[in-house]
Amino acid sequence: MALLNAIAIVLSLAAVSADASIIFDVADVEVTPGQTLTLSCGVRQEFRHCLWENERGDIFQVEDVHAGVHPGLRAPEDLTDNQCGVVIDSVSVEDLGAWTCRVFLAGRTLLASRNVGKTQAESCPDPFVLLGGQCYYFHTSTTLSWQDAREYCWSMDTAADLAVVDDCHQFAIIWDHILIYYTGKWFWVGGTDLGQEGEWYFINGNPVPMGLPFWLPGSPNDEGNCLDISVNSGYFNDYPCVNKGSFICQIM
């Protein structure tokens, strides 16, 4: 949790409707997790209703927010030129990504989006190490099943989980670290097809990249439903989730 308090979240405008009848806050703003954030959106003409949609596809009808239906979201104190505004009482890492305001007029819809992103960490809480701007913990003292490894990560930090490795550059950095410090060990990471056989996703919902340079040639081969980094090759491999191995936690 200490890392979260040290990470700033930066908000910048991603896109604004060209229609002058929609009013949207275009100023960049920087907040710290746990602080309050106002998402502003207003209209200069009569409209039917409006909503906000976040990066994960969650939809929040503004009428419901203003009525107190969604815990942690509420109406701004001043609704002047901000009839569709909402307030997030305590910003968290789950609020990262695009937030889109949709205003429904008679016969058309106005859209305005802003992107919520976080700065890279400059340091990590012990025992996490900083690699490529991300905080990882390589657990090798005991071996656990994939699910038990997830729960161990959760116990370390409220924002920690098994690592999401969906970028070639980051994958190379992690593999180099394994070669230097943990030769001969394989590691669970946060990918699985337990939701539907053959459809691989990371625990944050991102798809697991297929083929080279990520997967061991010939994999996945239905050997298992959980994702590991192979001890010999440095590729992804599908492995039975009940098997016990080392694992990599990441602060998301």
Automatic annotation (TrEMBL):
One of its GO terms (molecular function) is carbohydrate binding. Residues 20-117 form the Ig-like domain. Gene3D superfamilies: Immunoglobulins, Mannose-Binding Protein A, subunit A. InterPro entries: C-type_lectin-like (IPR001304), C-type_lectin-like/link_sf (IPR016186), C-type_lectin/snaclec_domain (IPR050111), CTDL_fold (IPR016187), Ig-like_dom (IPR007110), Ig-like_dom_sf (IPR036179), Ig-like_fold (IPR013783). SMART domains: CLECT. Coiled coil: none annotated. Residues 1-20 form the signal peptide. It comes from the Eukaryota. Keywords: Lectin, Signal. Residues 131-250 form the C-type lectin domain. It holds the Pfam family Lectin_C. PANTHER family: MANNOSE, PHOSPHOLIPASE, LECTIN RECEPTOR RELATED. This is C-type lectin. It comes from Procambarus clarkii (Red swamp crayfish). The gene is Lec3.
